[in-house]
Every structure is written in C-alpha cells, then in structure tokens.
Write a structure and sequence with these properties.
Elements lengths: L2 E10 L4 E9 L2 E7 L3 H4 L5 E4 L4 E4 L1 E6 L4 E2 L2 E2 L4 H10 L2 E9 L6 H12 L6 E7 L5 H12 L4 E5 L10 H14 L2 E5 L3 H13 L6 H6 L2 H18 L3 E3 L5 H12 L4 E5 L1 H5 L2 H4 L20 H11 L4 E2 L32 H10 L5 H15 L17 E11 L18 E11 L2 E5 L2 E2 L19
Helix pairs in contact: 4-5, 5-8, 8-9
C-alpha cells in the first residue's frame, strides 16, 4: 500500500475551507484530519508533502478541450500527450475532450478514433463527449449505447453550416433522445446560417482583418440561438448545457430560463472574462491569435459574465482549449478572416486566471473550486470521484501557492503553441505540486509525470438531474 500525507495546508473545496492534513492511500483520499490534532499526527506515510502556507485543492476538471482536433484544413497543435501535460502544469487533472462523428460516419467510428489518439498518451485522466454531426435513425440508436458505456453528453452545433451544423429538426430529435436516455445535449449556440451571410457581405466590402471575425458573429445571433436552443430543449423535455457563453444577451436568456425552473446550464471561458475585441483589433495580423467562436466581445460584456458566475446563472468555466500556432496555422487566414482557424490555447491557464479572479474580488475561493472542479465533475457525471477532496475521492490533489507571482508567457508555458493569449500578464498564484490518483505529476515545479498514467474515465449521467 502506497501512502502519502499532505500536511499543513488550507484545504479548499466547493463547500469548506479547513486547515487539514490529507492522507492518501493507493490513489484515493483515505482521510482528512485537522492539522495539529492527534488524529492528523497518527497519519503515517512513505511520502510527506509540506503544504504549510499553501492551498490544498482538488485537481481542476476542464470539461471542454479539443486535442488534435481537425479544423479548417489543419489540426489543433496540442496532442493528447502535450495537452494533458500542459493541463497538469496548470493544476488540471481531468479533461473531457470531444470525439467527432464525421458526416456519413457513425458515432462509434468517431469515438474509436479518439480513443486511439488518447490511449497511452495522457498524463492525466480523461473522458469524452461526442460531437453529433449527422443525426439519423442509426445515430439516435447509438446515442443510447454510448450513454450506457459512459459517454453521456452530446454536442451539437447551430454554427458551421456544411461542417458540424444541425438544423432545428435534427437538434430536436437528438434532444428527444437525450430526454429518454439521460444524456446531456451541449450546444454551440450561434446562428450559423445568418453569420455566413454577414461573413460573405463583409468580405465583399474588403473587410478582411481579424477584427471582423468578432463583428460578423454578432452577440444578438448568439442570444437568438441560445433562446432557440432553450425552447427546443423545453419542447423535448431535455436538459441543455450551452457552451462558451460570451455575450451578456445570451446570459440573460439563460437566466430567464433558469428562473422558469428549466434544466438549462451555461459555461463560459477565461478568454471571455479576461480578453475582449480590443485584442481582436490588435495591429497587423496579431488579432488572429484571438480568433475563436463564439468570438471575444467588447469589454462591457465581462461584467455580465462575472455576475452570472456569482449568481449561478453560469455554472462552469472551461477553456475550449483548441490551440493553433500563429505561424503557419492562424496565418492561413491572412487576407480572409473567415479562413483563420477558430480556437485559442488555455488549458494551462484556467486555474491560475480564476485564482486571479479571487484576488481581484470577482469570486470567492470556494466559488473558484466550484466552477473549476466540483461543478464540472457533477455536470459530467464524475463526482465525487473527481472535483473534491473527501474520503473515497480520487487523490487528484493540487498544492497551490497563493502568494507566488508569475508573468504569463509563451516562453514559459507548456502548451504546444507559439503564443500566449495572456502574454506579459502578471498574476498572483501558482501551482506547486500536482498529484493524479496519488501519483506526482508536478513535483515542486518539476514535471514528474509520464504519458500513459492518465486513464479513460467513463462517466455517469449529469448529476444535476437526479
């Protein structure tokens, strides 16, 4: 039996803060005891980690990543190996990535392809959502089978006609199936048909710079699609999770639905909380670094997102990590913003940026853990195995130094991408040590993990619907 004790830290979960020692046995949390008490003194182990003056928090759960994702004639720059290693550096110990059904293919073929990419390559544990690109009778039957084997969430797109797009009828059919089998529909809510018209018109006017990416993907079209998705889910009697919410008008739609008692949930991402259209408008072609969909919004939207996180109209912060290098990938869109691969790096930055939000007074420490660890674990059927520090939970534990200062930079990050979206930003707080199922992945700012430690994690259905 391998045993580790983490001593002297402030243990923070979504529910509690307590100065406690944590005993880990065979990859799981065995016990907690208040520091300095006889019970804590009785903890013995081969390995002791001194967390005095530090936080001891659950490993982060990032419910929205895209490793090795094909998009726009290229691939996301992080592999499962590089991406999960970077996640660990940032204090995240579980990701849920998206397997993709190609049009004309089956869900099973898409899922098998993603299993093949990830297996044996991950530094931390991982699960999968399924992108449903082609709704038909066979697909609907497959949804039932996937739920039974632990792939319990299905993403659909109201955007990207000709690629991932589903029309309202296809969306309704998938939602009806989810209502029956317990699955959760995740929605990219933007009116892609209307956006394509605006893209065509902008390019015809010679508006080709990256900033026009944000101007054509209008906040009203995000709000309209969010409203439509909510009403379709209501008709189907299905729960709905809206991904990467960026606009205050979309937050208002979610708040209204939740006030009506509907099972509607919302996620936002650090880029919408910390960046804006000012970044998209950076001179030259620099704005291409910030092209993602939904797009960055004017700064005034940030207040509504922070408020939504405080009032629980938004429940989760994920990254939508989908990195493309500036050189050779983002550059595909020089002279035509519509050809810039959509996506930004962030899997390594989320826990730190949200701690900065604690420092800045936007959220509390417990809310930090709630939106980054506990709620995503519950939302995607992994709690309390993941997302908390409690007896029986996986020993996914982060020792976090709340006083260390760092400057974010592509020079020092571990994501396989040639720029940082937060270059030069000074923040307070840094990961020191990371355990994944009790095994040290980061040890006092040294990488001690290895590819293949991370295992596939089947999930139960959304735990907010029990």
């Amino acid at each position: 039996m391998s045993r580790t004790v983490v001593r002297g830290g402030l243990v923070i979960t979504a529910a509690d803060e307590i100065h406690a020692d944590v005993l880990i046995e065979d990859g799981r949390i065995a016990a907690l005891a208040a520091s300095g008490t006889p019970a804590a003194g009785a903890f013995t182990a081969e390995r002791t980690i001194d967390a005095t003056g530090k936080y001891v928090i659950p490993g982060g759960v990032d419910g929205h990543t895209h490793m090795e994702m094909p998009f726009g004639g290229t691939y996301a720059a992080d592999t499962f190996e590089t991406g999960t290693r970077a996640a660990a550096w940032g204090g995240t110990t579980t990701i849920v990535d998206f397997a993709i059904q190609t049009v004309g293919g089956t869900l099973r073929e898409g899922l098998d392809a993603w299993h093949a990419k990830a297996e044996g390559n991950c530094a931390i544990d991982y699960g999968f959502h399924m992108i449903v690109s082609d709704v038909n009778q066979e697909t609907l039957k497959e949804m039932d089978l996937l739920v039974e084997e632990g792939v319990t969430s299905f993403k659909q797109f109201m955007a990207y006609p000709g690629v991932f797009y589903s029309d309202d009828g296809q969306i309704l059919r998938a939602m009806q199936r989810a209502a029956d089998n317990g699955g959760l529909i995740m929605m990219h809510a933007e009116n892609g048909i209307a956006i394509d018209v605006l893209v065509e018109q902008a390019l015809a006017r010679g508006e080709t710079d990256p900033r026009y990416h944000g101007e054509v993907r209008k906040a009203l079209l995000e709000a309209e699609a969010t409203h439509r998705a909510i009403r379709l889910a209501q008709v189907a009697g299905a729960p709905l999770y809206v991904v990467h919410v960026s606009a205050q008008e979309a937050v208002a739609e979610l708040a209204r639905a939740r006030d009506q008692g509907l099972h509607v949930f919302g996620e936002t991402c650090p880029q919408y909380l910390f960046l804006s259209t000012d970044n998209l408008a950076e001179p030259g072609f620099e704005g291409a670094k910030y092209v993602c969909s939904t797009p960055l919004r004017p700064k005034e939207h940030q207040a509504a997102l922070w408020r939504g996180l405080r009032t629980n109209d938004l429940q989760v912060v994920s990254t939508d990590h989908c990195p493309f290098c500036f050189t050779g990938q983002k550059e595909l869109g020089r002279g035509d913003f519509s050809k810039i691969p959509n996506g930004m790096p962030g899997v390594e930055n989320r826990m730190d940026l949200l701690h900065q939000a604690v420092v800045d007074g936007h959220i509390s420490r417990r809310r930090w853990i709630e939106i980054a660890c506990a709620t995503p674990a519950r939302m995607f059927g992994m709690y309390p195995k993941k997302g908390t520090i409690a007896p029986g939970a996986d020993a996914d534990v982060v020792v976090y130094d709340p006083h260390a200062e760092q400057v974010m930079s592509a020079e020092t990050h571990h994501m396989n991408v040639d720029y940082s979206a937060y270059e030069g930003r000074r923040i307070t707080g840094r990961v020191e040590t990371v355990l994944s199922r009790g095994e040290p992945v980061i040890t006092e700012r040294e990488y001690t993990g290895h590819a293949g430690h991370g295992v596939y994690t089947p999930r139960s259905t959304c735990q907010y619907l029990d």
